[in-house]
Amino acid sequence: MVMTSATPAAKNSSSGSPLSWRQRVCRRLFEPVDNSSLTVFRMAFGIAIAAYAWETFTTPVLAADYIQPKMHLTYFGFEWVRPWPGDGMYLHFLVLFLAGIGTALGLFYRLAAFMLLVSFTHVFLIERALYNNHYYLIILLAFLANVIPLHRGWSLDSVRNPRRYSPQLPQWMLWLVRFQLGIVYFYGGLAKLDADWLRGQPMGMWLAAKSDLPVIGPWLANGAIVPIFSIGGFLIDLLAVPLLLWRRTRLAMFTVLVVFHLLNSVLFSIGLFPWLMIVATLIFFPPDWPRRLFQIPNAFPLQATPDLTSWTPRRKIVGAFLAVYLGIQLIVPLRLHLDRGNASWTEYGQLFAWRMMLRQKLTGVRFYGTDPATGQQGVIDITPFLTQRQAAQMSRDPDLIVHFCRQLADYYRQRGVPELQIRVKAMASLNGRKPQLLIDPTVDLAQQHRSFGPQPWIMPLTEPFPSEPWNEPIDQWERLIDIPLAAPQSLPGTTAEKALTP
């Protein structure tokens, strides 16, 4: 049962005069709704975080990603964020696990939700090479879990203190979560209005690589299926929200999304994101669906809230918060359109924009060091500094390449090379194009600074979209594409390389 205000829709109950638009907005935001769907969302979200933390805690992933790397590739402005020393990261993930359990159970909810937000955000900021859109979404949902009292429904806190229990919450809380999830779908679809995506890349290359899967593999190898996946993915993302909001199409759209997310989970390694989205998308159903589905009686009937049309000081604060938060979520993904160049090539504007699965970027990179005091030159071996995963992510992102070069310069400065010059030969193949230079190899990147916008030393994408994807192995690129950059001597502490490093 959904209880709404007893106030008539068109008139002020006290004066009988028509409501102003401000009064109608106030009423719509603060009228009470059943909070059982938000409670189920809280449980699912907490369980998902606990599962993620436990899996990381009990596998070699934690040490490989957060303890063993000698250098970390951080976010611009957050270079100061570091992992805990010693075994501190194990304790950190244990705290994150307990925070997830506390959130799911609604036990000491305020503390649990706060620790979940802080601990997950810290993990997120340590290493940009691990960036994923669903990690960013988790931070946003964790923030909303601190704003919304999700423990007012079925929770251990309400058992410990029954006065905390309430069967209803203001409607704006429900719509705020819906909005956050809707942003992911909508901007994910909008991003697929991309020339490469609509031509079938990189989807075609990914499906071809999965042709050995049992049962569905032969279907994926058929080129005719590529447009179905590309156009279908675009339409599903773009139409998900309006069709979920319309009662007549809601169940059908949810069914499509379940199949869509399960297929993504089978074909692509994207962690818990498909499962989280399947459960979270249930928030678009009527707010009392769990109570009706499980036939749970409500011992505390919903009560109409009086005076829903007055903007009290507290409601004004809520309205201002909603305006600012919604504005940020709408504007941030659009910032890439202010930058020049292809975001999949320059990587600027790529983060926090819900640009999911739009590029297959094969890269090879070599770092040349020059000591101007002695004239010695050589190829710097990056394997002692970065893990394979870090190196793969760094090699395709100009901002991370500069960040790494500056860390390398600091490393050699501490070892007696105060003004090391570092130039980079980076080649990249975007969505099957012939490889070309990503970075101007004549620029000393140790002297460059990170920026929010594209830099002039990023080479523009000039290779045309190919009729057939480039499939030559990376170790043959230099032989096939002659882009010389001399390095006649070896720098002390480095090793010469014959081929590009993947």
Describe the model.
The protein is an alpha+beta fold and 502 residues long. It folds into two domains: 27-335, no CATH class; 360-480, no CATH class. It is 47% helix and 6% strand. The protein contains 20 helices and six strands. It has a four-stranded antiparallel β-sheet with strand order 4-3-5-6. A two-stranded antiparallel sheet has the order 1-2. A hairpin with a 6-residue loop joins β3 (361-370) and β4. The radius of gyration is 26 Å and the shape is globular. The N and C termini lie far apart (58 Å).
Residue share in β-strands? 5-15%
Q: Mean pLDDT across all residues, rounded?
A: 87
Helix segment tally: 20
- Main sheet, how many strands, which sense, barrel? 4 strands, antiparallel
User: What shape does the CA trace take?
Assistant: globular
Strand order of the largest sheet: 4-3-5-6
Properties at a glance:
alpha+beta; disordered N terminus; 2 domains; 4-stranded antiparallel β-sheet; two-stranded antiparallel sheet; disordered C terminus; 20 helices; globular; 502 residues
Sequence-ordered SSE layout with sheet pairings:
Layout: H1 21-30, E1 32-34, H2 36-57, H3 61-67, H4 88-105, H5 109-126, H6 133-147, H7 156-160, E2 168-170, H8 171-191, H9 195-198, H10 203-209, H11 217-220, H12 226-245, H13 247-267, H14 273-280, H15 289-293, H16 313-331, H17 343-346, E3 361-370, E4 377-380, H18 388-395, H19 398-413, E5 421-430, E6 436-437, H20 477-480
Antiparallel strand pairs: 1-2, 3-4, 3-5, 5-6
